[in-house]
Amino acid sequence: MVNVALSVVVHAKPGKEQDVADFLRSARPIVEQEEGTQAWFALQFDASTFGIFDVFPDDEARQTHLSGGVGQALAAQGDDLFSTEPSIQNVDVIAYKLPGETA
After folding, report:
1. pLDDT averaged per 10 residues, the chain (length 103)
2. Rounded Cα distance, 27 and 23, in Å
3. Phi then psi for 84, rounded to 5 degrees?
4. What is the pLDDT of residue 69?
5. Closest by Cα among 57, 65, 77 to 13
6. Sheet containing 49-56: which strands, arranged edge to edge?
7. Which superkingdom does the taxonomy of this entry point to (predicted)?
8. pLDDT in the model for residue 73
9. pLDDT at position 47
10. Using CA atoms, how far apart are residues 73 and 70, in angstroms rounded to an integer?
11. Distance between CA 70 and CA 47 in Å, rounded?
């Protein structure tokens, strides 16, 4: 069951767009190890705007994810990759469709 999510938007520094895309792609194996992360998406909105959207069964799993490997990597590499601080929003899921599940 999915009840909560995270929406993260980051803006790449000029010339760092490919580095941000590569960073996000490299995060997948880390997220695959997180039992509470039900679905995870790395997104590109335009040439320099990227995002992450992920969903969780509860706030405990969401907080575990935030303090986990991807969150730590974002904090460690943020100054080098991003032109502004990541915009991180906690959101509630009101409906969803995942393979093999119904809301």
Report:
1. 96 98 94 94 98 97 91 87 95 92 64
2. 6
3. -140, 170
4. 86
5. 77
6. 39-44, 49-56, 4-11, 87-92
7. Bacteria
8. 85
9. 98
10. 5
11. 22
Do 80 and 22 contact (CB within 8 A), yes or no?
no
6 close to 64: Cβ distance less than 8 angstroms: no
Q: Which two tokens stand for residue 83?
A: 């032109």
Q: Is 78 helix (H, G, I), strand (E, B) or coil?
A: helix
User: Do 11 and 82 meet the contact criterion of CB atoms below 8 Å apart?
Assistant: yes
Q: Using CA atoms, how far apart are residues 83 and 53, in angstroms rounded to an integer? A: 20
Q: What pTM was computed for the model?
A: 0.90
- DSSP characters over 15-30: T-HHHHHHHHHHHHHH
Long-range (24+ apart) CB contacts under 8 A made by 12-15 are: 12/48, 12/49, 12/50, 12/81, 12/82, 12/83, 13/80, 13/81, 13/82, 13/83, 14/48, 14/83
Q: What is the pLDDT of residue 103?
A: 53
Rg (CA), the chain: 14
